[in-house]
Amino acid sequence: MRAFVTGGTGFIGGAVVRRLLAAGHQVRALVRPGADTRQLDGLPVQRVMGDLRDIESLRKGITGCDQVFHVAALYCYWGHRWEEFYDINVEGTRRVLQAAWDEGVQRVVYTSSVAVLGIPEDGSPATEETPSTLEEMISDYKRSKFLAEEVAREFAQRGLPVVIVNPTTPVGVGDHKPTPTGKIIVDFLNGRLFAYVDTGLNIVDVEDVATGHLLAAERGRVGERYILGGENLTLKQILDILAEVSGRPPVRLRIPHVLALAWAYVDVTLARIYPRHVPAATPETVRLARKPMYFDASKAVRELGFPQTPAREALRKAVEWYRAHGYAP
Question: N or C: which end of the chain has fewer CB within 10 A?
Fold first, then answer.
């Protein structure tokens, strides 16, 4: 089996590439010029230079492949315009799926996000069926992913064998950038995290997420979405687990959302004055944290056989990986 992967230089995409290789597949990966390729270095992967704005590079990568894993996306909450999010996340998805349609691939797995799902008012975990609207999407990133998932469903209705997966908050091995969640872990390990807000996340091992992509290709129903998630934990519980597995002191100070929001406005103001400064939080991310972002992955467990590595184990692996690679002492 030959697979084409977009986003293979990223955290989730790199894990998908490694999982495909471990399963015996041949892998092609789309690589942007100038991209950080540490995820792919040393792996027997055919690299196709290009990006999601270049339809010819996508066709070149997909030609002759049996499966496509479209993992790539512009994922950030600062420093980019709406036009960039739309062109990369929405139109980029359309280009990938059109190329897959033209080449007649056997299966496409599109990596969406739980960011597009609604959050129940009562704090209960969201499912694949929890309703949401474009108007509820707070940031440009969320709006673009919402629209991109609609593109994936349109292609599924036309007959493209595409399955949608919605990862929650992955942690673990290979977070080179690191991701926003990874930065929380790194800051904690370096003693730079002094307080927390009252919120919650669904923590999942990135290696489980990668396995979930392959299971979706094998067993997923066309046009369906599957939450690839793990354990629902408060941020305080996550920090307490990090303290236990790392041997560092726990974080005890809780700050109210209103104070966090005020600091976020100060932080983005500093970023506008000093372009090299990246805000630790934006008003949008603080507003998102007002509700616990809990999710129910039982559909993926039931229909795909999606694994459930304990959050403590996933966080332990993340701590060990960051330390081994010089992110923290």
Answer: C
